[in-house]
Amino acid sequence: MLALVVFAALLALLILAALTDLRERRLPNWQTASAAALYPLYLMVAPVPTAWLSAVGLALVVGAVGVLLFSRELIGGGDVKLIAAMSLWAGLDHFATFALVTSLTGGIMSVAVLWFQRWSPRIQVHLAGLGLAAASARPDATATDGAAGPAPAPVTLPYGIAIAAGGVAVVIELMKL
């Protein structure tokens, strides 16, 4: 019963992290630290013994790789911390599930953002033509005729959503034990 309370707290943190990252494009330290801090509580109430030492080692390795990616500005710092915290929870037994769900969710989000970025100007033109969008929403003619216009602003991806999805998959796997 106590394990369910810990799982519920972790799920609440993951949902909050996903929403925060979507809204603010950042993951506060207290959220990632809380996710990691719940793990020792889980170890105390887990119905099945867990290989915690290998989980700590995995989280350290994942964190080190994340710091390298962060130093090259390929991933956000909050993402690194949340991935490391969830790697701790996943351990070696569930890391493949975590990585797969996180990667697939992130890939789907990336495709959706690219699709939106590509088609949004044209959709806005059509909506404006139907009277469903403000006339000021119309892009200039170069954006609609396929000619190269100004470079689009870089789009950030709230990857905390994908990490949270992977974390939810890990919780589901752990609850099956």
Distinctive features:
76% helix, 0% strand, 177 residues
Query: In terms of per-residue confidence, which ranges show pLDDT below 50 for 5 or more consecutive residues?
Result: 140-144
> Mean pLDDT, rounded to whole units?
89
Rg on CA atoms, Å: 20 Å
Q: Output the number of helix runs.
A: 6
DSSP E strands, number:
0
- The share of residues in helices is over 70%
Could you say which structural class the secondary elements and strand pairing correspond to? mainly alpha
Q: How many discrete structural domains?
A: 1
| 3D shape | elongated
The SSE order reads: HHHHHH
Kindly, what is the distance between the CA atoms of the first and last residues, rounded to a whole number of angstroms? 13 Å
Strand content: under 5%
The profile of the biggest β sheet is: none
Explained architecture:
With 177 residues, this protein is mainly alpha-helical. It has one domain (2-176). It is built from six helices and no strands. It has helices at residues 2-24, 29-45, 52-71, 77-129, 141-144, 160-176. α1 runs antiparallel to α6. The longest helix is centred in the middle third of the chain and has 53 residues, at 77-129. The two termini are 13 Å apart.
